[in-house]
Automatic annotation (TrEMBL):
Pfam family, one: SQS_PSY
Region (Disordered): 1-25
Annotated TM spans: none
Residue ranges with Polar residues bias: 1-13
UniProt GO BP: terpenoid biosynthetic process
Gene3D superfamilies: Farnesyl Diphosphate Synthase
GO molecular function, one term: geranylgeranyl diphosphate synthase activity
Organism ancestry: Bacteria, Pseudomonadati, Pseudomonadota, Betaproteobacteria, Burkholderiales
Superkingdom per UniProt: Bacteria
Name used for this protein in its record: Squalene/phytoene synthase
Amino acid sequence: MRNAKSCQATIQRMNPGPSPHPSSLQGVSHYENFPVASLLCPPHLRPAIAAIYWFARTADDIADEGDALPQARLDDLAAYRADLMATAAGRAPSPRWADVFGRLGPVIRQFALPVNLLADLLSAFEQDVVKQRYASQAELLDYCRRSANPVGRLLLHLYGVKDAPSLIESDCICSALQLINFWQDLGVDIPRGRIYLPADAWAPHGVDEAQLLGLQSNQNTINLIATHVSQASAMMLKGSQLVKKVPGRGGWELRLVVQGGLRILDKIAAQGFDTLQRRPKLGAWDVAVMGWRALWM
């Protein structure tokens, strides 16, 4: 699920792999836009970030893993939402996800987490169950508003950064990361029936659904992808000043988050914007480039 791929350990963010049990405080990958308890994260925040991560990861699995029918997934997500609300209200949730809410409850109370942001994430997971096409960029960004932006806002809340300009910059970074993941994974998502390229941009580029479903790499599809890559780059750069506002090691983590996203865009451009046929990945050299660029931000 792509909204489970949206602010996680920097390299694994763009190269997903298996995720650990929530008690692990090392880098995790499934929920890709989440810098979950990485080495740069302040130790006192690691349990809180891991608890939020595991809440999102479990909801992602409910919505996307296995072979359950859509209605069964929606029913389970509704039950999961009810447990979230019970936990937030200080009531006992069901025993079904005791491990998740047993960790999340103390974090909600200790940090006064905005529960509406956690609920927004669930809304995006619910949408993923039933929606596989996006009519416009505005519709896609509304999805990012619920699937990715809450992650950044929750992390800023933990760091005590709450001013409006910083929240807007965080939204830009997280939405950009979500979009970058979409454009990176076109060749993975489309065969699964998910087309995130907005439909109202197809015709102006001479592209139709059949070309996308057939993963046809021609000049029209390449131009369509390039346009959206450029938009994601501009959005990331618009939010990049946030790295100077997050204190301590968190600010360095964020620098690597931004540079990881931008480096993936570099890789997409280097292969001629053809992600229908080949998914770009980060390697050891890219890590070095990201680190160098982060130092000079």
